[in-house]
Amino acid sequence: MEELSLTEKIGLLTGADAFTLPALARIGLRGLRTSDGPAGVRGTNMDPADRSTSFPAPIALAATWDPALIEQVTREMGREARAKGIDVLLAPTVNLARTPYGGRGFESFGEDPVLAARIAAAYVRGVQSEGVATTVKHFVGNDSEVERWTVDVRADEATLREVYLVPFEACVTDAECAAVMAGYNRVNGISMTEHEELLTRILKDEWGFQGVVFSDWSAARATVQTALAGLDLVMPGPDGPWGQALVDAVEAGLVPESLIDDKVERLLRMAEFCGAVGAPGDPAPALDVRKGPHARRDVVRQAAARSFTLLRNVGEALPLPREIKELALIGPNAVHPVYQGAGSAEVGPAVTMSPLEGLRGALGGGVSITVAEGCAHSYRTSGPDAECTEDPVDGGPGARLEIYDEDDELVYSGIRPNSELTFWDPLPEGVAANAKQLALSTMYTAPADGGYRFAVAGIGELRLDIDGELATETIAPQVNDPMEVFSQPFESGVERDLRAGQRVRLTATGRPGDYEPGFVRFRLAAQRIRTAPELMGEALAAAGEADAVVVIVGPAPGEESEGYDRSTLALPGRQDALIEEVSAVCPRTIVVVNSGMPVLMPWAERVSAILQIWFPGQEFGLALADVLTGDQEPTGRLPVSIPRTEPLVPVGIAKPHEGALRYEEGLSVGYRAYARTGIDPRYPFGHGLGYTEWDYEEVQLPVGPVHAGADVEIGVTVRNVGPRQGTETVQVYLTRPVDGVSALAAFGRVVAKPGERARIRLTLPARAFAHWDESRHAWAQPDGAFLVKVGPSSRELPLRGELLVG
Ligand code: BGC
Predict the structure, then answer these.
(1) How much is the pTM?
(2) Protein residue closest via CA to atom 12 of ligand 1
(3) What integer is the mean pLDDT of 103-119?
(4) How far lies 4's CA from each of 7, 214, 261, in Å?
């Protein structure tokens, strides 16, 4: 520190570019490389030559209720980060699913702070065990997306302390996370990057956080307030509110130099943790994850299968019996599976295993599988399928991308595998930043007679030519959040009739204008038009012939995303009708829900089985086959309550009013909100069936009173009364005397063979008995009689007992 000038020190405190931190060769510090998570390690871009493992979405990780498994899974993430030369993972996201409308709910660990805290701490430990730093985000109150850059979250002290701060606190105090990311939003009137109370007093002083406070990308807007409040690092760089402005502020006496030293010390501590000090030069070489260790693919597949949550299973519809000879695989998500949620969490997957591939492999040649889309789930144009495209310059599948600069000079020409371009794609240095005009062209061959839809999507001025003639021309409207452009770019299209084998030349042209230099989003789409009756007819014909139907439904890709919230919880398109009609034709109808957050299930009582599979990541199909065939028991339990209808969502408002979002429900989020309002969820928090059944036999509590402020050990005995070995997640809820609030206090897994008993010891942490005393601004650990309730979900708690504290 003593060797560094003030300018050098402050120079370290703003990113060198979008995802890299500054290097300082003089002290042997190389530039740390960061990458988004939390559903994998994207890398600093989505280089097709350097793909990533797509892990199950964090909501799925939470659905395992298994911190030990999560630690194993995220250790693989840490290894992958190392192999890709990444030092700092921008993950996990520990904001809560306060409402099912949250666009980033799939990135969260659900609605309950205790479950989220246990899973989050395990996540941090796993990644950090490989010497990769984690950045726990977004501190705090960034639980929905509308107006996320400015929204003022109004929450009282107890609500912050007992709900929203809990997972952050666990990551700091139990798992020693290396970094925390301050969010875009405000809390009680103050921007999170300027929030001294939260950043310095609580996070650093009270919890003893030794790591680095990052700004969320472009969240730091002020110079002095951010520096004084406890922000340590401004991202991205190289511009931003610090740099010379902060040097001037220190020299003018507005910011003490000791504060700068503290920030630099934190940064160097993190760099040391990542092995970036005294090791100048580039980190480990990139590894091709397609050829990567099978162990990683196995772990990801197992985690996905374990996260699948069986909500309903009547007449032993699952696992599929061996006698099945004809299986119909129906639904838009069967044909267009959604592997991941959208936004910065997306990775370029190394491989993707579709449901059909998975089931074919598992069921073998003896079972015939018919696939039918049934209905569309998106009004956007998909495709084109690679086999219908040809690069007009060199031939071969794909599309030709040409980029022109402001002088209309061709500065780039290359082939793209999938006729789209995003700002995360690598292009030669400076090309994207100077792109004045982009053109994607392909020779498209119609696979059948019929109507086709061709479209161009992106930002700025857009144009589509078919066989050299203008087909459509438009200017994309401005959007609220850049992520909206990424996940659901504005599109303009036309329809044409083609004969099978007919070839057309498609050229999409885009002029991004001054949207944001370097930010590109552009795609050319082509899709055969199928009418609703045609699609439904095919599905019903397939269902009529089948011994069992698996209907895979869910949102379209990009519907659950960073940057905006969901506008409805209903399944898009005609999916509800599809399920109703198919289940009327085939008695063994298994609905598989491929969504990050809950969807409405008006058909729930009329189908045989419902399996919630979240966004399972790249091994989707293999994990699904494992569970449907019974090779793997679905051991997931809901980390979020599933509502019956939209009016029956107790916390349904994510939209700020005059800039403020009031957390009026206080502690009553998730299942606590259902309990307080007396509303029945469709499926409660904690619910999930397996392939066997359990009796809850006994809860053993300590005899006599226990000390206030101490952890309490209890024992629970359950018995497997079903037909096969299984795993049960035992849940313990505690009702406190002070206000009658009942909340999850502990949980754990047992495994037992048929007929066997299993006993589990669980620790109710002292914090489970505490509440935040607003008048003393401190935790209170009162005496009194606490009610202990034990069972398989937040609504089914057959074992009860009283615990006397004091
Ligand atoms: C997101 C962060 C992400 C960052 C970098 C922001 O818009 O909120 O979660 O880590 O971008 O991509």
Answers:
(1) 0.96
(2) 344
(3) 98
(4) 8, 21, 10
